[in-house]
Structure prediction request, 288 residues.
Amino acid sequence: MKKDHQHSEFPHNVDMAELLRAHGITPTHQRTEIAQILFAKPQHLSAEQILSIVNQDKPVASKATVYNTLGLFAEHGLIREVIVDPSKVFYDSNTCNHHHFYNVDTGTLMDIECERVSLGELPTLPEGTEPAGVDVIIRVRNSG
Amino acid sequence: MKKDHQHSEFPHNVDMAELLRAHGITPTHQRTEIAQILFAKPQHLSAEQILSIVNQDKPVASKATVYNTLGLFAEHGLIREVIVDPSKVFYDSNTCNHHHFYNVDTGTLMDIECERVSLGELPTLPEGTEPAGVDVIIRVRNSG
DNA sequence: CCGAGGTGCTGGACTCCGTCTAATTCTCCG
DNA sequence: CGGAGAATTAGACGGAGTCCAGCACCTCGG
Prediction:
């Protein structure tokens, strides 16, 4: 199969390439395509969803690349992993400090602006550890 | 293989049987054995760990039964599912309102008494939903 | 005592998300 | 150009959890 990593005909890609570079990530065709999907709007997508979206018109990235890329983005703080469902991880393109509603009936994830949750200061951490993130998940179910 | 659901030679089992009945669960040999493991002390075990503990001396319960039982216990509020690691679910025998530290380096889970985390009142829930639980997870990593 | 029906348990096959591997392609720079 | 190192790929693999068809055991009525 022929590849064309170097052709970036969409000006949009340039912005994404800059964004990636700004986070210390070498931009590639696959990475910019995935970044565009993620940053099209604030949303919560699973790896499987991203895999199918990125390849819906023509094959762009393999499963391994999607997983690698999402891990890389999360590692560099571009996106945030949200673990609420044991069966899959969601990736959140909103990295502002915020929390989540999770509807256990529908599997839907919604943001909560952090001002709407008053969380006091952190308790003393266990010996020899440093903070790596705070997740607040409010699980809800349909009342109907 | 011969079964003996009805023989409960350990007085301990009686307590567990009562506990199960009090939560509307029919006590069986497998269920009381699993309950004893869970409630021996406050702890966080995965389904796989429980499976191997319950069968370490002699075969007591199959994988399917362990999963069914843990789901049943969680459904009836005897234990609490803790979802912090995408690769497995932990079951927490402490159902008091509390939160968790999760060490991402070691995979260790620790309780935080709820008094040590000041969490204001819930934000307005999404339309047509009712609360189903609040999880606060403070992720830490080794600073060494 | 017998048989029927209901609940619970079982092992083994199966699914699904995610990871690994070995081989290929791309990029970059001397 | 040419070679080293990074990125990507297809497909095999792994592990947690689910499903299913059949068996074991309990209860109850006759």
